Amino acid sequence: MDKLALVLVIIGAINWGLIGFFQFDLVAAIFGGQTAALSRIIYGLVGLAGLYSIKFLVGERRVDS
């Protein structure tokens, strides 16, 4: 689950970078526009992955010795 969340967060970050630098929404281009059902599902999954990934920021760190 952690790796899947990380992959989705990376996809989201790349997409936001493309939007910011080039005004190009890759997810919308691939899946038929920002309002297309599949695009909205991808956006939702990326958002959920971002929320899930908060645990990496606030979670306990193990010290292996």
UniProtKB/TrEMBL annotation:
Which residue ranges run through the membrane? 7-31, 37-58
Alphabetical list of InterPro entries matching this protein: DUF378
Recite the UniProt keywords alphabetically.
Membrane, Transmembrane, Transmembrane helix
What's this protein's name? DUF378 domain-containing protein
Name the species this protein comes from.
Alkalibaculum bacchi
Lineage, opening ranks: Bacteria, Bacillati, Bacillota, Clostridia, Eubacteriales
